[in-house]
Amino acid sequence: MALWGGRFSSETRNEVAQYSESISFDRRLYHFDIVGSKAHVTMLATQKIIPAATAEAICSELDKIEQRIESGDFKYDIALEDIHMHIESALIDALGAEGARVHSARSRNDQIALDIRLYLRDEVDKLIGGIRDFQRALVAQSHANKTAVMPGFTHLQHAQAVLFAHHMLAYVEMLDRDAERLADCRRRINVMPLGSGAIAGSTLPIDREAVARELKFSRVSRNSMDAVADRDFAIELVSALAIFAMHSSRLSEDLILWCSQEFDFIELDDAFCTGSSLMPQKKNPDVCELTRGKTARVYGALTALLTMCKGLPLTYNRDLQEDKVAIFDALDTVKMILQVYPPMIETMKLKKDHMLAAAGDPSLMATDLAEKLVELGVPFRTAHHRVGALVKYCREQGKALNEVSLEEMKISIPEATLEFLALFDPIESIAKRDIVGGTGFEQVSKQLDFWKKTLDF
Ligand code: ARG
Fold first, then answer.
1. Ligand 1, from 85, 87, 114, 318: best to mutate by most atoms within 8 Å of Cβ?
2. How far are the Cα atoms of 168, 369, 414, 415, 432 from residue 375, in angstroms, in the given order?
3. Which of 43, 113, 265, 291 could staple 252 via S-S, CB 3.0–4.6 A?
């Protein structure tokens, strides 16, 4: 009979046990379940709710259970539903009725809330570390190719010449916001729900603050009903993960384009690509494509959590057991991205000549011409129009912008001088963008120094 079976007269149907078990996925919470139970029984003893000797026996038995789980010497059985009941029942097996005191003033509803909060707090710290490594890889690659020039794109059309490092540092900024979002979400994860019981707290004189101190939470939850019903912190976390995955997916899309024959800007290391079973010449950027695909999965997890919670009446409902499937899948997916991307970025090779050649397209410097006119006092709209007319003339003549003579240029731009003909060098164009946030060499160099200092390497 189940631990809760007192009022039942028949056993759970086998299919129902299979339908309702969560041990197959919540077993990964075992360490935090044990840490939480140890803090709980220690407090129960201090408050004289259970004998001190019982608390000690329970704590040392919990350590043994943890070792058994870690050595693979622990039996799982779906009849015991979840990790909480597996551990409690192992305690009772070892200590008899004294072991059963562990669950005084506690429900699985506040216990699972505690376990996931402990687990996620730990995971968030690791995720932030992983994001920092990802940023370091991007900064290292940028630093190694500080002067590499490439065309920047809008609408996937050549826009203006930029430094490759500037492009990479844009991703470093995105990842920085991801790390900030996680750190912010950690503040709301770091609230201690134990003591909320099933819904309405406990009649026993428990000391919740002591448990919070022991488990290093910043505070205890203020409302027992909210505490057992709340999964906002998980939704926030998975939403931060979804945004991170979206950033990884955008980077992946850039890399996929750049290693295509059409762009030919980079080569990814063989260790991060796969071949075709049919076409011998192929080397495909599968890792990047998989990230686009897996990002959809992380969005799916976020949608599942939001949908799961929207119709739930207060407080705990069993629907909430499914939260872990979504949370773990999103976490595992993001952790894999964090493992694969830093080495993939560090080992990718740039084809700097191809990048520079693409950035040599003189039309990328059309804006520079218009800005030169602004310097000479021409209103920008007029300047834009004149350079537009030059572009039109060139197209009609079948010439590139830098192939026209000064006389030809003067047809559209009467103010043009010889200086105008020298504006088509992408390196000069970049050098002139020397404003904060711009792609100028000096500015990007300052940004690189900033990130190296901030990321401590
Ligand atoms: N396995 C459950 C979950 O993950 C634990 C809480 C169950 N509570 C209950 N009253 N059935 O949410």
1. 318
2. 31, 10, 15, 11, 13
3. 291
| pTM score above 0.85 | yes
Q: How far apart are CA 63 and CA 57, in angstroms?
A: 10
* Catalytic residue numbers, as ranges: 155, 276
Tens of pLDDT, residues 328-359: 999 999 999 999 999 999 999 999 999 999 99
Contact 157, 78 (CB under 8 A): no
CATH 3.30.70.1730 fits 361-454, yes or no: no
Ligand 1 centre distance from Cα of residue 318 (Å): 6
Give me the residues of the chain with pLDDT under 50, please. Answer: none
Distances, alpha carbon 317 to alpha carbons 251, 309, 312, in Å: 39, 10, 7
pLDDT digits (tens, 9 = 90+) for 137-166: 999 999 999 999 999 999 999 999 999 999
Mutate to test the pocket of ligand 1, among 16, 25, 321 (most ligand atoms within 8 A of CB): 321
- Residue 18 CA to ligand 1 center (angstroms) comes to 15
Q: Whose CA is nearest to atom 4 of ligand 1?
A: 321
The pair of structure tokens assigned to 7 is: 């009022």
Pocket of ligand 1 (CB under 6 A): 22, 26, 82, 108-109, 112, 318, 320-321
Residue type, 99: G
Q: 109-357: CATH homologous superfamily?
A: Fumarase/aspartase (Central domain) (1.20.200.10)
